[in-house]
Amino acid sequence: MKEGDPRMDRVARSLLAANKIWITTHVKADGDGIGSELALVRALRRMGKEVFIINDTQVPRALRFLMGDTEIATYDPTLHDARIDGADTIVVLDVGLTYRLGRLEAPFLRSGAVKICVDHHLETDSDFDPALTDCRATSTGEILFGLLKRMNAPMTRDVAIPLYASISVDSGNFSYERCTPNTFHTAAALVAAGADPYWIHLNLNWKRPMTEVKFDGEVINRLRVESNGEIAHSEVTQDMLRRYHIDPMEIPTVVNIPLSIEGVEIALLFVELEPLHIKVSARSKGRVQVSELAKRFGGGGHPLAAGFSVGASLDEARTRVLSEARMLIERAAQDCTTASGPV
After folding, report:
1. Which of 175, 230, 254, 285 has the lowest CB atom count within 10 Å?
2. 45: pLDDT confidence band, cut at 50, 70 and 90?
3. Same-domain check for residues 13 and 126
4. Cβ 171 vs Cβ 139: under 8 Å
């Protein structure tokens, strides 16, 4: 996103004019959502604003090191509705679809506050005005860095650390296709402000319980490859979640295991949350846009990383999703043949 973008100016003006601000993000928040929330709340408080964070779901264990003494409340209507209703401005980070606010969608929709969205996904509801979105950015954290710079907000160490973490998580440790020179310039500025890349990487990736590592082993044992090696998929059953004491919120990167196989273009992880509620994480190496697959089941996401749910048994969900995935692979092959054929 270029400096001087009129949308960034509008959001900056709205935040500078705000007094009481509620910040939130999507259900089952990840590193980009949590990191962006923490960076924004700390920066705005230093600018004299009254700011608080209330989310639908609790912070995942692996991200709690970012919190320090900053509170992120988990929504309780009896405790939080009055506070939410008193906000003059709402900032929703890392999501542009209000249904993904979970239980907080209702208080969000009824509020008469200014409703700001800062996000890097493809879709944004019309409830937001103003909205600062850029689906080309690696992360909400990268967009937020530009916004804070535009506002002349203080870039202190406790702001730089969660911002660096948010970008690192959603850029695949600065390896995904959306990384641009701006991504690395932003990271360099955050390191200069006090973010320690090694310490952040250590806490994000190298403090896993043994049970999680053994859990990964079972995911690998259940791995299957088909469609001439172009689709790889595995599964997580309710029994596995119970035996390894795994919170489904804690396994977003497991889908990268099947994606790492040579020749695989689509990786799928089926997670049995309930007998008839299957969450599916989808990843692609680039030839196929898994966001298309997600849309067919009412989900969404990025072209190379998307998610959705299927109301069916694990076996039925697998059958239905794999059928659609095969069609995407076949279509991609046909497009490739057409593109390389005689002119």
Report:
1. 175
2. very high
3. yes
4. yes
